[in-house]
Design goal:
Blueprint lengths: L5 H15 L18 H15 L3 H14 L29 H15 L10 H15 L33 H9 L5 H8 L13 H5 L11
The protein binds protoporphyrin IX containing FE.
Length: about 220
């Protein structure tokens, strides 16, 4: 893991814009001005505390936001827990490796917001995740930027909706381009967004075949 580089910072700012642009007409930076004017500071304080406990807060929160936004939009549906008769997004195999510190960040920030009587039940977890992502970027050395607010939390969360909607490490360029294009993102956007991997880690089973199956003379690693 390391500090964010400029490409990553740019990519994340871009991701926030592009993920949210389709609904930007309904979003505004002062969305909570009347009902919870201090929401940004409340979230920032919680995120700062988490960051001071563990740097994992940074990659965990960034990836959580990405996995939330690519499935059913940025509606915090990735945070919803499964019930007896519903397997939620977070229990889909593609989400099982989401680091717990991302969830913990949002849950703690939401609790802190709701502890203020004026703010109770007024701020969506979707907005808190968007703010927390901005905050971890700032805390890890990136620039600050305004986050437009007003997202609604999803009313459903189903593991089935994750199927085929998150990129796999085995994807070739066409598959990656196609998936990002389905979200209105170009190849250049996809490459820039992939710089998010400047921070965080990957389990060996996600890439070991690309190291140990390499044959001299081939132009690219096997997938
Ligand atoms: C381009 C297609 C992408 C593929 C194929 C991909 C795949 C992966 C894989 C396989 C891992 C390792 C997971 C594990 O072993 O636990 C990972 C980690 C990560 N990904 Fe992606 N990813 C993609 C795009 C993105 C984007 C767009 C973002 C955010 C803007 C992102 C953010 C992250 C972060 C921060 C981690 C590290 C998580 C941690 O350390 O907890 N990824 N990704």
């Amino acid at each position: 893991m390391g500090r964010l580089n400029p490409i990553l910072v740019w990519s994340l700012c871009l991701s926030l814009c592009l993920f949210l642009c389709p609904t930007s007409a309904q979003l505004k930076t002062n969305f909570y001005a009347n009902v919870c004017p201090n929401v940004e500071n409340i979230v920032k304080n919680v995120v700062t505390q988490k960051f001071q406990q563990t740097f994992v807060t940074v990659p965990a929160t960034i990836r959580l936001f990405f996995h939330d936004c690519f499935v059913q939009g940025c509606d915090a549906s990735v945070i919803v827990a499964s019930t007896g008769n519903n397997k939620a997004e977070k229990d889909h195999p593609d989400n099982l490796s989401l680091a717990g510190d991302g969830f913990d960040t949002v849950i703690k920030a939401k609790a802190a917001v709701d502890a203020v009587p004026q703010c109770k039940n007024k701020v969506s977890c979707a907005d808190i995740l968007a703010l927390a992502t901005r905050d971890v970027i700032v805390l890890s050395g990136g620039p600050s930027y305004a986050v437009e607010l007003g997202r609604l939390d999803g009313l459903s969360s189903s593991s089935k909706n994750v199927d085929g909607n998150l990129p796999q490490p085995t994807f070739n360029l066409n598959q990656l381009n196609s998936m990002f294009a389905s979200h209105g993102l170009s190849q250049a956007d996809m490459v820039a967004l992939s710089a998010a991997h400047t921070v965080g880690f990957s389990h060996c089973n996600k890439f070991s075949n690309r190291i140990y199956s390499f044959s001299p003379g081939t132009q690219w690693t096997p997938v």
